[in-house]
């Protein structure tokens, strides 16, 4: 276009159209062309100048040498230079023309009168516009000048267009190389026309290695086939194409990518090829995947939670509820106002802590719901969103059970301390009972056969024995009595208890017994087994006291598996099962739940202590046994006690037969810090024939023994005494006379058992309150 316009302008110029018309059209070409004359002959120069002016050209300057012309051109830029080839000075016309052309891009026409061939050849090379031989006609000059101007102008324009194109192409290349995604274009045959830098990097191949190749040159055929198929699809449909793909990059990694491709057409509208861009979405996919995973994790956590959870937006709308919350509210209230959905209120709740949460605080509180009487711990915390907004996360934890358990724990701790207290009292009580029983026994011995006193004394002894049993119960319960564990055939004891019970319960109660004699041995304390059987049968008797009924006692060996126990710490194996069943009043569920509670009783004051079953429970558990109670109101009750059987060849010790009280004449040193006990024991021992030296302090006793150690055959000492305990005293005595037999008399002892006593050199110990026969037997056992 531009070229055409230029030709038109030249033509216009040549036709010398009206000046105004041309100026209006704004063509620079219509200005007078300015010519610089380089001629060393002044006259010729002047002549050329007037000639040019006549032809309508302007003359900027006339110079005479090559050096001058460069200066002048800088000053006023001419459109053309008329140059004499032969010049005076260092530089000839051809050299000067070279500079003008290359440096300033101004056309040069050589003027020559007598140029030699060689020079003319050089001149032709330098300037394409030729030369004019002097002298020349106006017409020749004009034509030559116009030609030169035209060609120069056309050249300039072409150069401008070329530069522009080059600029555009380099811009385009920079642009596509700057794109961080791999980019490519192919022709319709599928040959790569070009790719960008990102593409080179992604596949680890250079442009040169790719251009002209097809996908078949780049990878295995089965993969190339798929690419080919996709390209064909695009070419046929002539639209854009987007799809996900897996590709292997330069590092050999499989990447998830998206291909975005579009076909391009020529002017005629037929498809010429395609452009494609690749987006690597591997990281995005991984992020999506891990987001999905973590969402899944939180979702299942929320679903598995027993705690009710919901999230509330700043404007009080429920954004999320977990299933536990849904159950609490009764329906899915997502999107609803929280005070409406959760508390059934139209207005914001007065206790609402939403604003605290919006300040970023955490708020915890306890809530008792009147509806179901449950206690919840409510924890509210803010959830900070990326857009700066805050939601409220609320978790309701039902702590009703926990609170109940804490209360129970506190209660049982109270009971524990009562137990300790009771143990202490029982100990003192023992010391009071001891002389009562002792003196009563002696008084009975003293009373004549037919004395009316005998009955009364017997009542005293009976009462004292009952009191002693009660103390034993309390001590057993507070675990302060020493256990005498040994392999035991408990059937003997059970039979003994049955005999006792038979004689003390009315005939309206029938007793059925089924005691297996083949039951294995159980490690137990005979007194405690006695107590267990006694307590169970007493309860059964009490339950049937009004109406009568059947008391059924069975004892047999059973095998128990894991499922048979209520207590998971029990071991499967062989057990001896003692069952005591009655047809009495039975128990309701509430009573049944509390039977093992110490001091729980439904009986009248004086009849029930509430300790029976708790003692049984304590004993059975200490033998690693189990206990089960079944009961129905008005139907009756059955209690099963399971005790683990040991495989032992030890002979069992049955209940002791009644033997006459043995006597002796040995010399005994008796020590107890309590006066009445000392007095009573002294008399008891003297009656048995012994020679007694009494002391009421361990220090005095030691003194007496040290003075005449050989004067004594036996020492009987109390345990708990001020200054020096019975054990310490015994040790001192044994230092003086290692063979002196010592019996320790104790109220209760957690510190001393039989084995330990023997270790100290102590021969035996008796439990307070001792009865005469017991003491008498123990003395003979030690001395003989
Ligand atoms: P106590 O017999 O002194 O009341 P226990 O610990 O032996 O204390 O028993 C606690 C309570 O359990 C009794 O008061 C009674 O209510 C209930 N109970 C125990 N055994 C039976 C039974 N065989 N039949 C009905 N109730 C029983
Ligand atoms: Mg009882």
How does this model look, in words?
By secondary structure, the chain is an alpha/beta fold. The protein has 26 helices and 27 strands. Strands 16, 17, 18, 19, 20, 21 and 22 form a seven-stranded mixed β-sheet that branches. The radius of gyration is 62 Å and the shape is rod-shaped. The N and C termini lie far apart (147 Å). Bound molecules: adenosine-5'-diphosphate (ADP) and magnesium ion (MG).
Number of helices: 26
Provide the gyration radius in Å.
62 Å
- Tell me the span between the first and last alpha carbons: 147 Å
Low-confidence stretches: 1-30, 648-659
Distinct small molecules: adenosine-5'-diphosphate, magnesium ion
**Fraction of residues in helices?**
40-55%
What class, by secondary structure content? Answer: alpha/beta
Give the tally of β-strands.
Answer: 27
How much of the sequence lies in strands comes to 15-25%
Biggest sheet details: 7 strands, mixed
What overall geometry do the principal axes of the alpha carbons give?
rod-shaped
- Average pLDDT score: 84
């Amino acid at each position: 276009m531009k070229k055409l316009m230029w030709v038109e302008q030249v033509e216009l110029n040549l036709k010398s159209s009206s000046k105004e018309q041309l100026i209006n059209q704004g063509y620079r070409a219509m200005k007078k062309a300015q010519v610089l004359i380089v001629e060393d002959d002044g006259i010729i120069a002047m002549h050329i100048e007037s000639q040019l002016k006549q032809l309508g050209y302007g003359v900027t300057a006339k110079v005479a040498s090559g050096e001058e012309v460069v200066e002048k051109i800088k000053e006023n830029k001419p459109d053309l230079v008329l140059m004499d080839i032969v010049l005076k000075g260092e530089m000839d016309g051809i050299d000067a023309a070279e500079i003008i052309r290359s440096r300033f891009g101004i056309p040069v026409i050589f003027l020559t009168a007598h140029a030699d061939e060689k020079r003319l050849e050089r001149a032709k090379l330098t300037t394409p516009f030729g030369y004019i031989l002097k002298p020349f006609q106006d017409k020749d000059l004009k034509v030559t000048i116009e030609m030169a101007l035209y060609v120069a102008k056309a050249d300039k324009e072409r150069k401008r267009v070329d530069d522009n194109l080059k600029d555009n192409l380099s811009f385009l290349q920079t642009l596509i190389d700057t794109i961080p995604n791999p980019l490519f274009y192919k022709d319709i045959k599928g040959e790569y026309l070009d790719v960008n830098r990102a593409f080179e990097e992604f596949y680890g191949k250079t442009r040169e290695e790719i251009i002209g190749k097809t996908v078949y040159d780049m990878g295995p055929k089965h993969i190339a086939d798929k690419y080919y198929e996709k390209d064909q699809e695009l070419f046929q449909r002539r639209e854009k194409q987007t799809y996900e793909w897996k590709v292997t990059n330069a590092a050999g990694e499989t990447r998830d990518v998206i291909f975005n491709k579009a076909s391009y057409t020529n002017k005629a509208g037929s498809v010429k090829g395609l452009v494609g861009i690749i987006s690597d979405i591997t990281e995005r996919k991984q992020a999506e995947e891990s987001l999905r995973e973590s969402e899944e994790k939180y979702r299942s956590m929320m679903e598995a939670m027993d705690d009710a959870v919901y999230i509330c937006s700043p404007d009080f709308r429920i954004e999320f509820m977990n299933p536990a919350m849904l159950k609490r509210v009764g329906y899915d209230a997502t999107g609803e106002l929280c005070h409406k959905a959760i508390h059934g209120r139209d207005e914001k709740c007065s206790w609402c802590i939403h604003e605290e949460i919006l300040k970023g605080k955490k708020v915890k509180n306890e809530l008792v719901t009147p509806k179901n009487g449950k206690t919840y711990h409510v924890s509210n915390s803010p959830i900070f969103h990326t857009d700066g907004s805050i939601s409220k996360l609320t978790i309701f934890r039902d702590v009703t059970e926990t609170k109940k358990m804490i209360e129970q724990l506190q209660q049982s701790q109270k009971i524990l301390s009562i137990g300790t207290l009771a143990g202490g009292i029982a100990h003192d009580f023992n010391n009071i009972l001891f002389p009562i029983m002792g003196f009563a026994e002696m008084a009975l011995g003293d009373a004549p056969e037919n004395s009316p006193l005998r009955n009364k004394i017997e009542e005293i002894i009976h009462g004292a024995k009952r009191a002693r049993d009660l103390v034993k119960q309390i001590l057993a319960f507070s675990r302060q009595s020493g256990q005498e564990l040994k392999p035991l055939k408990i059937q003997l004891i059970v039979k003994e208890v049955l005999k006792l019970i038979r004689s003390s319960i009315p005939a309206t109660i029938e007793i059925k017994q089924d005691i297996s004699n083949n039951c294995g041995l159980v490690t137990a304390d005979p007194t405690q087994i006695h107590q267990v059987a006694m307590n169970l049968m007493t309860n059964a008797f009490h339950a049937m006291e009004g109406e009568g009924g059947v008391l059924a006692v069975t004892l047999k060996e059973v095998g128990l598996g894991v499922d048979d126990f209520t207590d998971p710490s029990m071991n499967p194996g062989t057990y001896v099962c003692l069952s005591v069943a009655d047809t009495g009043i039975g128990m309701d569920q509430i009573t049944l739940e509390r039977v093992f509670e110490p001091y729980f009783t439904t009986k009248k004051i004086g009849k029930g202590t509430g300790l029976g079953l708790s003692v049984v429970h304590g004993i059975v558990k200490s033998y690693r046994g189990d206990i089960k109670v079944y009961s129905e109101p008005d139907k009756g009750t059955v209690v099963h006690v399971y005790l683990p059987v040991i495989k032992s060849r030890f002979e069992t010790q049955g209940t002791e037969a009644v033997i006459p009280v043995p006597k002796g004449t040995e010399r005994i040193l008796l020590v107890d810090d309590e006066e009445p006990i000392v007095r009573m024991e002294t008399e008891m021992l003297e009656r048995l024939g012994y020679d007694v030296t009494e002391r009421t302090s361990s220090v005095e006793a030691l003194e007496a023994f040290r003075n005449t150690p050989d004067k004594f055959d036996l020492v009987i000492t109390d345990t708990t005494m001020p200054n020096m305990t019975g054990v310490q005293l015994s040790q001192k005595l044994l230092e003086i006379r290692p063979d002196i037999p010592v019996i320790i008399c104790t109220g209760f002892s957690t510190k001393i058992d039989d084995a330990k006593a023997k270790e100290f050199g102590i021969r035996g110990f008796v439990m307070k309150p001792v009865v005469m026969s017991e003491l008498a037997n123990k003395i003979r056992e030690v001395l003989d």
